Amino acid sequence: MCLDAADAPDDGLIDLSDAVAVVLHLFGGRGPLPEPFTACGADPTADGLDCAAFTPCEEQYTVS
Ligand SMILES: [Ca+2]
Question: How far is the CA of 19 from the centre of ligand 1 (A)?
C-alpha cells in the first residue's frame, strides 16, 4: 500500500482534499501536483504517510 500516492496535495493527510486536488488538476486548470508527480520516486516531504509499495513503480523504484 502507498498512502503517499493518494496524498495529492501533499498535506500529509488522506481526506476529501485529495480527490478535490486531483479533480481540480484534471478539469480545473490547476498546475501540477507536488513531486514526484508524473514520475516514480520518493515523496520529498516528511509526513506520517508511508509508501511500502506502489505497483506501477515497483520495477522502477523500491522504497527500502
Ligand atoms: Ca492529502
Answer: 8
